[in-house]
# Entry
Amino acid sequence: MDFSKEELLKEITFKTSRSGGKGGQNVNKVSSKVELNLNIKTSVLLSEDQKELLLHKLANKINSLGILQVITQEDRSQLINKEKSLEKLLIILRNALHQPKLRKVSRPGKSVIEKRLKLKQSTALKKINRRNDFWD
# Structure
């Protein structure tokens, strides 16, 4: 299921704090680290089945209250970090909710069967040619 950013923004809370790392004086005075929180248990966007699937698949990323946290502090700008964390959240949700198509069982093709039989025959001939017949 695809979620739009506008729909997700209604259910997301942002928390900002001072970031570590590069930035010089900027690090000491600007809150550029962004912590995005999405409460999966109380989300209106998700169906019950989707909630269970997310809670199961993302168990290591969700805390005991059912909140999925995405933390971004890659950039010096708070706005860019918010956008990046939102993109990360969309990717996480898409990957967790993606269900691969089931493979239909089919018979092997004619050429594959012929190739296998030829390989078998050549191996058998190789082994026959390696035999030492001492008793003849």
Notes: The chain has five helices and three strands.
